[in-house]
Amino acid sequence: MNISYKWLKDYIDTDINPEKLGEILTYTGLEVGGIEEIESIKGGLRGLVIGEVLTCTKHPDSDHLHITTVKVDENKILPIVCGAPT
Hints:
alpha+beta; 2 domains
């Protein structure tokens, strides 16, 4: 039977990492065949940056593109061309 570490944590209040918990379960007589990480989104959203769109104007050479200025952190504002609707 496969069980989710997240699901197990709903029933057991613990901060033990999955590998150590697997060892503990094995020592108590439950067989742990393996531990694998499942990502609902490939890459797990590593490198995702969330920004605040400050301005959005039509691109002068396109009917569907926009030029935006996006604040990606306290000191960094980037010009980004995108096709998102306004």
